[in-house]
Design goal:
alpha/beta; DNA polymerase, domain 1; single chain; Rossmann fold
């Protein structure tokens, strides 16, 4: 078995707190479509899905064509928010995220990846804003994969790195992340500082749950010790 360990992170709600920008962009999209705005809790609940699926989840009566229109309006709203004040700058890293990435990146046997519902453009902006792209050897986005919880993104992470699935871990804040990880055969770590409540993460089958980034290293060590 390879000694390499792969740790894949979700982005929104796990590494960066982007909920305010996401809620604002979705509100703009719904306004332009003449629809009642979805509540903040409902929008937090769909973070991580592909945009078309997210819009249709929030407004189930929409046709697929209308959901695509809503997704495009969301993208434009996000671009507008970025131009108005820097959307990614308004989405800070969570406490301890940068230090955790630096510690893991310094380990020769650990490779880091991202699997996010963001578009590639949004992910690259987040990387540039927070100077974190340098940590990741594989980055998967919604542009080229089915929506979470489909495991396609994680399969590509394995292919990119050559890591074995038994040495792979998915870290995320939503049930979609946990379900994706389980579907791909990854060990899953749920974080409680993001957008889905603890009971939903547990129902999704999270193998481990952490309440702060400072707990990540010990949890990864525990997983490795069980391997």
């Amino acid at each position: 078995m390879s000694d390499l360990r792969l740790v894949v992170f979700d982005m929104d709600g796990t590494l960066i707190d982007s909920q305010n920008v996401i809620i604002a962009a979705m509100a703009r999209a719904f306004d332009k479509m003449g629809l009642p705005r979805a509540g903040d809790a409902a929008v937090r609940g769909i973070i991580g899905l592909s945009l078309e699926e997210a819009v249709q989840t929030l407004a189930p009566h929409l046709t697929m064509a209308e959901a695509v229109e809503g997704a495009n309006l969301y993208r434009q709203g996000f671009v507008d928010l970025r131009a108005e004040g820097g959307a990614e700058a308004a989405a800070p890293l969570y406490d301890g995220a940068l230090a955790a990435l630096e510690r893991l990146h310094a380990q020769d046997e650990t490779l880091l990846g991202v699997a996010t519902g963001k578009a590639r453009r949004g992910l690259e902006h987040a990387y540039k804003t927070h100077d974190i792209g340098r940590f990741f050897v594989t980055s998967q986005t919604a542009d080229n994969h089915p929506s979470k919880p489909h495991p396609s993104m994680l399969y590509q992470c394995l292919a990119d790195t050559g890591c074995e699935v038994g040495q792979a871990v998915m870290v995320g804040d939503t049930a979609f992340d946990i379900e994706m990880g389980k579907a791909a055969g990854f060990t899953t770590i749920a974080v409680t500082w993001g957008y889905h409540p603890l009971d939903r993460l547990q129902a999704a089958g999270a193998d481990f749950v952490i309440d702060r980034f400072d707990d990540l290293d010990a949890t990864l060590d525990e997983i490795r010790g069980q391997g």
